[in-house]
Amino acid sequence: MAISPGVYFLCLLNLFSFGAIFSSATLFTLENGCNFTVWPGSLAGKGPSIGGGGFALAPGSSSQFQAPAGWSGLFWGRTGCKFDNAGKCVTGNCGGGLKCSGGGEPPVSLVEFTLNGSDNKDFYNVSPVDGYNLGLAVKAVGGTGTCQYAGCVKDLNIDCPAELQMLDSGSVISCKSACAAFNKQEYCCTGDHATPQSCSPTKYSQLFKNACPTAYSYPCDNATSTMTCMGSDYAITFCPTGSST
Ligand SMILES: *[C@@H]1O[C@H](CO)[C@@H](O)[C@H](O)[C@H]1NC(C)=O
Ligand SMILES: *[C@@H]1O[C@H](CO)[C@@H](O)[C@H](O)[C@H]1NC(C)=O
After folding, report:
1. Based on the structure, what is the number of domains in the chain?
2. Is the residue at 8 inside a domain?
3. pLDDT at 149
4. Which cysteines are joined by disulfide bonds (predicted)?
5. CB 150 within 8 A of CB 75
6. Ligand 1, from 197, 199, 220: best to mutate by most atoms within 8 Å of Cβ?
7. What CATH number is given to the structural domain containing 102?
8. C-alpha of residue 218 to centroid of ligand 1, in Å
9. CB-based burial of residue 146 (10 Å sphere; 0-12 exposed, 13-18 middle, 19+ buried)?
10. Which of 198, 222, 226, 228 has most ligand 1 atoms within 8 Å of CB, for mutation?
11. For the residues 68-75, what does the mean pLDDT come to?
């Protein structure tokens, strides 16, 4: 039986798009360096949801996921989760239970990715602009370009000033951004402080910078914060070595 040209064309097309997805897929390895379970959450800005939007990661374990070319989105870590009827997480909670259908509730440290951005480079950064709950790091594996390590070296929950602390049973579980805590233009870089010239580091952003030196520490902090790499895979670590929790 002769195969119709139409069917043949479709098969060829599938073959090509399948091949293209494989050749340019980026591998994300999520690793839990904490001594407690972390429930990674992820939210896609462009492309499919990674890891179903959320899953449990036992201490010392890792999981791998592929993302297609052009993918963009966020990763964060949730702690103290219970997915019963009243279920939620103590930090980084999202809508949707185990599998996030929305972003994590601040204060939450974020990893942001854009694959195949301008000049086909991948862009990534660690951002405590929405506050901090866990140490995070991104390491490029292979790839060409500057491909800098982006990550935290200290646990900001230990150094968080009282006015920014979020407490649970007397322990600091996360640290609010100064913008969220005080809602002032100078911290949020709004109003009179909306331009890169008038949006400056503060004593609070300096604390975030000390804990996560390569991360965004205030809204206009773009000089050292966005990393680029090409053709790389990425390891994302919760509680990287050096940050104590
Ligand atoms: C930071 O971003 C602003 C606006 O997004 C831009 O005008 C400025 O040139 C950037 N600075 C650096 C060092 O990239
Ligand atoms: C995405 O970027 C990678 C290099 O980082 C490249 O190999 C791949 O061809 C690009 N894919 C598309 C669809 O542009």
Report:
1. 1
2. no
3. 92
4. 34-239, 81-89, 94-100, 147-229, 152-212, 160-175, 179-188, 189-199
5. no
6. 220
7. 2.60.110.10
8. 13
9. exposed
10. 222
11. 96
* Tens-digit pLDDT profile for residues 170-219: 999 999 999 999 999 999 989 999 988 898 889 998 999 899 988 877 77
Is residue 24 in contact with ligand 2, taking CB distance under 6 Å?
A: yes
Non-local CB neighbours of 82 within 8 Å, separated by 6+ positions: 88, 89
Question: Who wins on pLDDT, 221 or 156?
Answer: 156
Is the link from the previous residue into 213 a cis peptide, with omega within 30 of 0? no
The answer, yes or no, to whether any atom of ligand 2 lies below 6 A from the CB of 231, is: yes
Note the pTM of the prediction, 2 decimals.
0.85
Residue 76: partners with Cβ closer than 8 Å, 6 or more residues away = 40, 41, 42, 92, 103, 104, 108, 109, 110, 111, 133, 134, 136
Q: Which atom of ligand 2 is nearest to the CA of 20?
A: 13
Closest residue to atom 4 of ligand 2, CA basis? 231
CB of 25 within 6 A of ligand 2: the answer is no
The parent domain of residue 84 ranges over 26-238
Give the pLDDT score at 243.
61
**Side chain identity, residue 10:** L
Among all ligands shown, which has an atom nearest to the Cα of 223?
A: 1
Q: Residue 220's pLDDT is what?
A: 73
Q: Closest ligand 2 atom, CA of 143?
A: 5
Is residue 21 situated within a structural domain?
no
* Residue 58, domain member (yes or no): yes
